[in-house]
Design goal:
Blueprint lengths: L13 H13 L5 H9 L20 E4 L2 E3 L2 H11 L7 E5 L5 H7 L4 E6 L2 H13 L5 E5 L12 E6 L8 H5 L1 E11 L5 E9 L2 E10 L11
Parallel strand pairs: 3-4, 3-6, 4-5, 6-7
Antiparallel strand pairs: 1-2, 7-8, 8-9
Helix pairs in contact: 1-2
The chain binds S-adenosyl-L-homocysteine.
């Protein structure tokens, strides 16, 4: 459970949140666990106050530094796909951003390792997630292209920014049976892919067209 003093009511009323959950399940999200976590996660605390009244709309919103918080449907879908083979112990997330996807994951898996290349976003997310009482998250300011080798292997890896091609080093950091969920492709023509690692190699499946900010190399202070 999240720290309840932050839950907030009023313009972010339970009814508004319930409407979002109805919409997500109408769009095909089936996992009750994922829907419940999204219902109880205060998305309005992850965006600036001026936009907080739009927090429970199913849309992406700006979070500063030219980045966006993902659309709830995409967060729900990627989380559902990541967890579709059962519960996971360890997940690597690349692109912490404001930390919303991180918060959803942390309530569903044992341990989340999250990386962000822009320091101010990373620090903001860390502060927010700590004050929500989430303790099973390890943060790192760094370039996600190379993954997090000394915490690997991971049962799941999720990217919230799109590389042009699947980064090889991330495939190497997947545990046997693990899966990588990511948007891949050039700006304007990205697809959401799931890559599974088995004893005989990798299989990949393309789910839908998506629009994400690009994965960029190097770190920013
Ligand atoms: N899940 C986030 C999405 C933020 S947008 C949220 O809900 O807020 C994607 C994020 O990926 C941005 O914050 C961007 O700075 C970060 N990013 C882009 N390239 C990266 C890289 N190579 N390593 C780590 N983070 C990266």
């Amino acid at each position: 459970m999240l720290n309840s003093e932050h839950m907030g009511i009023g313009m972010t009323s339970q009814r508004t949140r319930d409407r979002l959950i109805t919409r997500l399940s109408e769009q095909g999200i089936r996992s009750v666990e994922v829907l419940e976590v999204i219902r109880s996660t205060p998305r309005h605390l992850f965006i600036e106050e001026a936009l907080a009244h739009r927090a429970y709309e199913d849309s992406a919103l700006p979070i500063g530094q030219n980045q966006t918080i993902s659309q709830p449907y995409i967060v729900a879908l990627m989380t559902e796909v990541l967890l579709s083979q059962g519960p996971l112990d360890s997940v690597l997330e690349i692109g912490t951003g404001c930390g919303y996807q991180t918060a959803v994951l942390a309530q569903l898996v044992k341990r989340v390792n999250t990386m962000e290349r822009i320091r101010s976003l990373q620090e903001g997310a860390e502060q927010r997630l700590r004050s929500l009482g989430l303790r099973n998250i390890e943060y790192r300011h760094g370039d996600g292209y190379v993954g997090w080798r000394n915490r690997a292997p991971f049962d799941g890896i999720i990217l919230t920014a799109a590389p042009r091609e699947v980064p090889k080093m991330l495939l190497e950091q997947l545990a046997p049976g693990g899966r990588l969920v990511l948007p891949v492709g050039e700006d304007g023509q990205q697809s959401l892919q799931v890559i599974s690692k088995s004893a005989s190699g990798f299989t990949s499946e393309s789910l839908m067209e998506v629009r994400f900010v690009p994965l960029q190399s190097g770190v920013m202070a």
